[in-house]
Amino acid sequence: MPRKLTAQQIAQYEREGYVCPVDAFSTERTRAWRARLEAFEQAQGQKMTRGHNFKPHLLFPWVDEIVHAPEVLDAVEDLIGPDIRLFHLTVWPKDAGSGAYVSWHQDATYFALEPACHVTAWVALTDAPVEAGCMEVVPGSHRLGQLPHAEMQDPENLLSRGQELAVDVDRTKTAYMPVKAGQFSLHHTHLVHNSRPNRSNDRRIGLGISYIPTWARCTSATRVTAMLVRGEDKYGHFDDERRPVQEAGAEERAFHANAVARFRAMNASETENKVAVVKR
After folding, report:
1. Which residues contact 152 (CB under 8 A, 6 or more apart)?
2. Is the dihedral of CA 48, 159, 224, 33 positive or negative?
3. pLDDT tens track of the chain, all 280 residues?
4. d(C-alpha 176, C-alpha 193), whole Å
5. Sign of the CA dihedral 48, 53, 59, 63?
6. What's the sign of the alpha-carbon dihedral 167, 168, 169, 171?
């Protein structure tokens, strides 16, 4: 029996590649998490934007709380089973009125996972209506498999390497995935999606949490890290990630730096000679 999702939601995920919205946390709880994120930004003198937004679950106990929350993991288990690792996490803040956006892409392009079976839970810390640049998807596109991408040099593109879909996909019938603070969406790694600039009056902040079953492996020559968040791992395809104790403490920063460096090395080796570079 499903733990959180309904049979209809599971069928929708299999048919269309996404489920949205899913209720999880109270407005008060998400407001407190946002306050902690923005307090850190203020202390550091820089925002969590492109280049500074990878793997915050290794730095902050409050992010660790979110990624282990049964409100999220129960839904993920309904899709990929009870033994779960967190493979990657990215914070996605878009300031109100900024030109920041995410180009049309598939998540699997970056990850070198075999098989491509990961599910992304996008957890909203603020409301993300259509005008704020919520996710826009091509329903059913996950069934197309991995598609070619190009690498686009555009500073407004929040994707780490600026990857963009390099083939035509019918986008005449897209669907938006608006979520309120405390809700989340789920989408398949091959689902074609993007998000537009934030035209609302508030920041749009969400966590894109990539979960995989423990039997999935990374085919890169660079061995990467992943956090066991539920169940057990009988396969050993990843080095374990430590849970943070102090807020961006010395040990947390050192482990985070190493894990991010290994992820970037894997990512670079996977995209090298596989994508064209497009200047805009």
Report:
1. 103, 162, 163, 164, 277, 278, 279, 280
2. positive
3. 899 999 999 999 999 999 999 999 999 999 999 999 999 999 988 888 766 789 999 999 999 999 999 999 999 999 999 999 999 999 989 999 999 888 999 999 878 999 999 999 999 999 999 999 999 999 999 999 999 988 777 888 878 666 788 899 999 999 999 999 999 999 999 999 999 999 999 999 999 999 999 999 999 999 999 999 999 999 999 999 999 999 999 999 999 999 999 999 998 887 764 554 444 4
4. 9
5. positive
6. positive
Q: Is the separation of the CB atoms in 110 and 161 below 8 Å?
A: yes
Torsion angle, CA of 100/204/257/235, rounded to 10 degrees? -110
Structure tokens at 10: 């599971």
The position carrying tokens 């679950």 is 57
β-partners of residue 113 are: 218
Contact 222, 260 (CB under 8 A): no
User: Helix axis angle, 7-16 relative to 70-80, nearest 10°?
Assistant: 60
CA distance 243 to 60: 9
**Cut 0.85: pTM above it:** yes
225, 218 Cβ separation under 8 angstroms: no
Strands 225-230 and 239-240: parallel
User: Do the bridges between strand 193-195 and strand 102-105 make them parallel or antiparallel, or are there none, so unpaired?
Assistant: antiparallel
Quote the CA–CA distance of 128 and 180 in Å, as a whole number: 6
Please, which residues bridge with residue 124 across strands? Answer: 206
Query: What does the alpha-carbon distance between residue 109 and residue 161 come to, in Å, rounded to a whole number?
Result: 11
